Amino acid sequence: MDKRECIILITVFEEKNITKAADRLFVSQPTLTYKLQQIEKQYNIKILHRGRHGVQFTQQGEYIVEFARSTLERLQMLEETLWNMDEELYGTIKLSVARAYALYRLPDVLKGFSDKYSRVNFNVRTGLNLNLIQHVFKGESHIGIVRGEHHWSYEQRTISEEKMCILSKDKVELSNLPNLKRITYNTDPALNMVIDNWWKQNFSSPPKIGFHFDNMETAKRMAMKGLGYAIVPSIIIKDEENYISLTDRNEEPLLWKTWFLYKKESLELAMVREFIQYLDDQYVTGYK
Predict the structure, then answer these.
(1) Which residue of 27, 39, 146, 227 is surrounded by the most CB atoms within 10 Å?
(2) Distance of alpha carbon 283 from alpha carbon 158, whole angstroms
(3) Mean pLDDT in each 10-residue stretch from start to end of the chain (288 residues)?
(4) Residue 88 per-residue DSSP state
(5) Over the range 265-285, which residues count as b (16 or more CB within 10 Å of their CB) and which as e?
(6) pTM of the prediction?
(7) Helices 3-15/18-25 angle, 10° precision
């Protein structure tokens, strides 16, 4: 089974829909159907059944997909090892990155590294911190960039520390926050916990939630239109925007940290080793 066949099987299995899988693979639906039929003919099995609500994989089909996953991982490992033997760095670094960092900081990080190593590519996935950590733990990503405090037994560094802030169009008094409309947003549970703990330490009544949005950037834009205030990390705030930095019970800045983490075996790849060194040199603010 070659690399292309592995990718086809995995994609169809993930999408459970021939049309969507064909779109992802940039091939026509008839071409994809023909290729699946050829694989079935090659192994004399039935891989899947097509129905009104998509495709259903047979037991043999599920087995061959797992084989395809394992084969693709081994092929990628072979490619990376061979690339690692070359004096010039090239290959694909797989990153799992927190959404906010990917949006506001990662472009500058990747631009700086790519200017130096133009033949190195990146495959970046974003999501919640727990999922990102799992990707690195399972070896699905070389490096994770996560936010907040999380358990990780391997290597990690702090690459940024941000202040937690009240963001609003007009200046507000902290003591008056319980009387004002708050704008909330979907985010990682760890950040919600930091915000909730700060609120409970400072106020006896719950906040007045006026609006809720599915992401931090939309919440920020609404706050800047005067619809209420939002509690956000400073990564999304521009210098000219109106904000108040928060402090903890010891009058120290309330901070939200970003880490990058990895396993030592990833250092066997020269491209990963160089990228980690680049992060160390350019961005690391401390160690844990």
Answers:
(1) 146
(2) 8
(3) 91 92 91 93 92 88 93 80 70 92 94 92 92 92 93 92 94 94 94 95 95 95 96 91 92 94 90 92 64
(4) S
(5) ebeebbbbbbbbeebeeebee
(6) 0.71
(7) 140
